[in-house]
Design brief:
Blueprint: H1 2-5, H2 17-28, E1 35-38, H3 43-46, H4 63-76, E2 80-83, H5 87-96, E3 100-102, H6 114-122, E4 126-129, H7 134-142, H8 155-164, E5 169-171, H9 188-192, H10 200-207
Parallel strand pairs: 1-2, 2-3, 3-4, 4-5
InterPro entries: Metal_Hydrolase
Protein name: PuhB
Length: 208
């Protein structure tokens, strides 16, 4: 949404690193309290015709451009959060020193290697887990939702391995603040216990 981009949306992917720095610095000067960086793209979730599935992911920026963003965030004193959906993007985020690894368990179709689990544990990064319980997964499958694919393997194993290794864990939600109601067309099964809505059912989810 345009109101959230403030000059640092998809446009950044085409700019040289010095211009990326200037855009990010201007954005941070507006008083935002964190910087979320797209290390992985979001193509699998945005193509309406579904011509791309959960079988690919691309890194959105070069390593130097990512380093520029992190440098600006550190200079502004705000935490860095990274969006990733692949093993290599997750590895890059740890190397960058991200404070929060958003849905770290989502590495499309690939189990997180043990070396990377150990690397996350040894780092100062917190692994955000966007976990889905079996009842909700079944509801997603029943209505033919593509999101059901994110509720099984290897994502559940990724969660268990991170927890077993004593990684620093946060529970994530991709709720965001959309400009339209994404919940309006959900089936009753999906509405019963939706983990991405902050409200009464948010607390219900923590108990289920």
């Amino acid at each position: 949404d345009a109101m959230f981009e403030a000059g640092v949306g998809h446009q950044l992917s085409l700019l040289p690193r010095n211009e990326v720095r200037a855009r990010v610095r201007d954005y941070l000067s507006r008083g935002v309290d964190m910087l979320k960086i797209a290390v992985s793209d979001h193509i699998v979730f945005t193509l309406v015709d579904r011509s791309v599935g959960f079988d690919r992911s691309y890194q959105a920026f070069s390593r130097p451009a990512l380093e520029v963003m992190v440098e600006e965030a550190r200079a502004a004193g705000v935490p860095v959060l990274t969006h990733t959906v692949s093993v290599e993007a997750l590895d890059t985020s740890v190397d960058l020193g991200a404070d929060v690894l958003i849905h770290a368990n989502y590495t499309l179709g690939q189990q997180i290697p043990n070396y990377l689990i150990d690397k996350i544990v040894a780092s100062d990064s917190w692994a955000g887990l966007q976990t889905v319980h079996d009842q909700h997964r079944q509801g997603l499958e029943d209505v033919g939702s593509r999101a059901a694919a994110l509720a099984g393997e290897p994502y559940a194993t990724n969660e268990r391995n991170l927890i077993s290794a004593n990684a620093k864990i946060l529970l994530n939600t991709d709720a965001g603040c959309p400009s339209r109601d994404h919940l309006a067309d959900l089936s009753p099964v999906e509405r019963e216990d939706r983990p991405w809505t902050i409200g009464n059912d948010h607390f219900h989810w923590t108990q289920s």
